[in-house]
Amino acid sequence: MKPLVSIIILAYNHEKYIGDCLESFIAQSYKNLEMMIIDDCSEDKTYSIIESYKEKMEAVFNSVKIQRNMQNLGAVKSLNSMLKIAQGVYVKYFDGDDMILENSLEIMVDTLQKNSQIAMVHGNVCFCSQDEHYPLKNYKINTEKKQTDDRVDCNFQTLLEYDYILSPTVLFRNEIIKKIGVFDEKIVAADWDYWLRIAHDNKFKYIPEELVAYRILPHSMSHFTKDEEGRKRFRQMFQSQESTIIKYKEDEKVKWDKVMRSFITRNLHCAIDLQDNVMIKKIKYMQKKEKVIIGVEINLKYIMYRMHLLSYIQCVKRKLGMQTANV
Q: Which ranges of 16-103 does DSSP label H, i.e. alpha helix?
């Protein structure tokens, strides 16, 4: 018999998407699933839609558990409550606004079954709009991910340098939970932190296939808009990632200079794009303190930004001077 897989679906105000998500799992060729769906006190019809699928899911899957929080606990607390009772040999968590692609579970389980030394697998995604439904008709392949993973060896050092794991595509062994515990509820980037904790003493593998349809939504934590809300989300993510990497600064396995170079480079890129002067100053101070040499491209980008900013300030000063002269 095929091993049991625990699927934890996290839903919050997903009335537009949860039906597509559940349909995508029902259509999977792999059926020996423990479906664990938790509604985090949604304010819309999410829970009633989940309930309407209960009979259909029970006819297909090994077991179905549906839970509703009486108050909004947040994604990580909700996830942890399910991880603690998951019975599957393998575990996967999933957001209720995404969709799993055909035969993906079969591919992931088969990879883990054939590689007993591997603790976790991950793969690629395709992108779809918030208006897309299952089965997919319009989507875009994530070509950047393909290029990245052709170049990167999947190991702890490279993962610490850059979070290249797309969380919706992950499947890991349940036994890992007994070894390292559940997700850290105190940080924003809890998924990257968890993949690092797995990767520190275990091997993991990239599957070069699209496994999940990732829905692009404007309120996503990873979507930074050029306004105060976007800058706020960026600062939260920066702080969370900083607290994650700092734990490994004294680790003998780690090439710390490479970790800091990567961390400073990608965050400086983002801070400049968001025109977040507070974070630009903070990151540049960190670069000086850690004595990090960054690449030519980001240096030029920083210089160009500073020149543009200075010219803007000079322009404002000239206008203010003209206004003063006219008074």
A: 18-26, 46-52, 54-58, 75-83
Tokens of 191: 């998924």
* Segments forming the whole domain that contains residue 123: 5-215
The answer as to whether 222 is a domain residue is no
Residue 287 structure tokens: 């670069």
State which of 165, 182, 215 marks the end of a domain: 215
92 & 49 share domain: yes
Residues 181 and 264 in one domain: no
**Tens-digit pLDDT profile for the chain (327 aa)?**
899 999 999 999 999 999 999 999 999 999 999 999 999 999 999 999 999 999 999 999 999 999 999 999 999 999 999 999 999 999 999 999 999 999 999 999 999 999 999 999 999 999 998 899 999 887 777 776 554 555 568 999 999 999 999 999 999 999 999 999 999 999 988 999 999 999 999 999 999 999 999 998 765 555 677 889 999 999 999 999 999 999 999 999 999 999 999 999 999 999 999 999 999 999 999 999 999 999 999 999 999 888 887 677 677 777 776 554 444
CATH code of residue 36: 3.90.550.10
- Measured in degrees and rounded to the nearest 5, phi and psi for residue 163 equal -80, 90
Backbone φ and ψ for 167, nearest 5 degrees, come out as -55, -40
Counting the structural domains of the chain, the total is 2
Global pTM value: 0.90
Q: In sequence order, what DSSP letters do the residues of 92-118 get, joined into one string?
A: EEEETT-EEPTTHHHHHHHHHHH-TTE
